[in-house]
Each structure stands twice: as structure tokens, then as C-alpha cells.
Automatic annotation (TrEMBL):
InterPro entries xrefs: Puta_zinc/iron-chelating_dom, UCP006173
Name of this chain's protein: YcgN family cysteine cluster protein
Alphabetized Pfam families for the sequence: CxxCxxCC
PANTHER family per UniProt: UPF0260 PROTEIN YCGN (PTHR37421)
Taxonomy, superkingdom: Bacteria
Length: 168
């Protein structure tokens, strides 16, 4: 007898903490520096948002948080990440509705939007990330640590589109 996988049987809201954590594919894209580019000239008119407004675009860079492991794409300080990096956003069931800031390939976003897990997801490969790496989804070999970049002067030189890519 086969059992239905929990990610098919349950909504994200119904998952326990262990199941919730297992949904993360570990691609590392959420650890990339990103920003909202706005048509608004005046910074004074800009305010925090939970949706993209007209004239705004979410842009990704290839610059990754200093705590990201270049070989595993995982956070080296996961349990203390929000203390060390206050701007690190922790995706939760409560802020899932504001998921626009996550890449299209994000497994939480895919499930939230009804697209299911991608064929490369580690849960479908006995926990191995190799299919994800082979599909070009992860940051493996594509990102540079924020410690190696002059963010004040070179930030725009690191804008990339590959984090927006999704497969199946």
C-alpha cells in the first residue's frame, strides 16, 4: 500500500514544523540580495510593501549572504540567521500571502500557487539536491559572497535574471 506524500495530502497551512521545513528545496535563492526597483524618483515616496506596485520590479543579484555555504547552498547559521541578519526574511504560514519576494521556483511559492513540487525537488530524490543542481535551479556555482563585493559601489553590476527561472 502506498501512502500519499504529505505535500499532496496537506496544504502548507496544515503542515507541521518538520513537514514545513522539508518543503524548502535548499536552492539558496532566497539568500540572494534582491531589491525593488521603482519608477518613483523620490526615495521619500517609497514605503515598505507586501506586494509589487505599478512601476516596481523585483530585481535579483548574484550576491549571496555571507552565511550561505557555497558548496551546499545552505545557511551556515540557520537557527540564528535573523539575529545575525535582521533583514533575513523568514517565510512562515503567517506571511505566506506575501510570497511575491520569493523566486518562481521556490517550493513554498509553487505549492501556494497550486503548481506542486518540481520534478527536481530533493523530496522526490531521496533528499538529494543533485537533480536541482543539474536543472540549474540552485545558486551553486553562480553566486558570489557579499564579503567579496563592494555593495555600495558595485551592486548594480551584479543584477541577474537567472534566479527568476523555474523548470517544470
Amino acid at each position: 500500500m502506498t501512502t500519499t506524500p504529505f505535500w499532496i495530502e496537506k496544504s502548507l497551512e496544515e503542515m507541521n514544523q518538520q513537514e514545513w521545513e522539508a518543503i524548502c528545496d535548499g536552492c539558496g535563492k532566497c539568500c540572494l540580495h534582491s531589491f525593488i526597483d521603482s519608477d518613483e524618483e523620490e526615495e521619500e515616496q517609497f514605503s515598505s510593501t507586501d506586494v509589487l506596485r505599478e512601476g516596481e520590479e523585483l530585481l535579483y543579484t548574484d550576491v549571496v549572504c555571507q552565511y550561505s555555504d557555497a558548496n551546499t547552498c545552505a545557511c551556515t547559521r540557520y537557527t540564528e540567521r535573523q539575529i545575525l541578519v535582521p533583514s533575513c526574511v523568514q517565510l512562515t504560514k503567517d506571511n505566506l500571502k506575501d510570497i511575491f519576494f520569493m523566486p518562481q521556483s521556490c517550493s513554498y511559492r509553487r505549492l501556494h500557487e497550486g503548481r506542486g513540487l518540481a520534478s527536481w525537488h530533493p523530496l522526490l530524490h531521496d533528499g538529494s539536491k543533485q537533480a536541482m543542481h543539474d536543472a540549474g535551479i540552485s545558486i551553486l556555482g553562480k553566486a558570489i559572497s557579499e564579503n567579496d563585493v563592494d555593495l555600495e559601489n558595485d551592486f548594480e553590476d551584479h543584477i541577474v535574471t537567472w534566479p527568476e527561472q523555474d523548470r517544470d
